[in-house]
Amino acid sequence: MVTGILSVLLYHTTRTRIRNDFRKHLQEIAGLGAAIVPAELHQTLKHPDQENGPAYMTVKRYLQKVQRTTPDIHFIYTMAADKEDRIRFVVDAETDPENIAHLGKEYTDASPFLKQHFKTISQPVSEADFYTDYWGTWLTGYAPIFNTQGEKIGVLGIDVKAERIIQYEKSCCFYLQGYSASASCYLFFWESGLVTAFLPRS
User: HSE on the CB side for 25, CA within 13 Å?
Assistant: First the structure.
């Protein structure tokens, strides 16, 4: 009974820690990524026909550089608000034509958090939990992109697949089950007196 409770507590504590660590990591990577985006080029990208042009491809290469540093990153992309405050994609590091978020495409199924806070994001932040959009289910970090005048001209987003994070959590659960089993055996032997029977007598 005691070990069962201990195992559950350890699992939930560890899962929370893993989720929080991922959120913190996403914020750090998003912040670093946003800082190297060539903002002056980025803010010139206004029309869909600029996709794959020189400015677009330069920004894209910077995003891909960030993506290569962290295997857990599935998507990395930038966004900006239009005159009606609708969130639109600007540059996407993705190379698969089926999955690219094209320049100027409205992000209609952005998370409630992003829709609410897009205009006010002033430092790296992350979603509190998983959310689902057209491309899948994610945990996402965001960071503002500033130009040389200190004006916010966009937001960088970094997605990690929810299933990848769940895999980490399951691995920890497997480890904890082994720990719990070992603890149960020890308690059984201790309570039965078999452990104390082998302890040196004073």
Answer: 15
Q: Which residues of 47-61 are buried (b: 16+ CB within 10 A; e: fewer)?
A: eeebbeeebbeebbe
Tell how far CA 103 is from the center of its chain.
Answer: 22
pLDDT of residue 28: 96
Structural domain count of the chain: 1
Q: In the beta sheet, which residues pair with residue 92?
A: 77
User: Per the structure block, which two tokens stand in for 22?
Assistant: 């991922």
- Predicted confidence at residue 173, as pLDDT, reads 58
Residue 97 is part of a domain; what is its CATH number? 3.30.450.20
The pTM assigned to this predicted structure is 0.81
Q: What is the pLDDT of residue 193?
A: 46
Which residue type sits at 78? T
The closest alpha carbon to 161, from 141, 138, 130, belongs to 138
Is residue 94 domain-resident? Answer: yes
Q: Which two tokens stand for residue 126?
A: 């992350």
* Pick from 109, 106, 156: nearest CA to 131: 109
Token pair in block for residue 182: 């070992």
Residue 183, in any domain of the structure: no
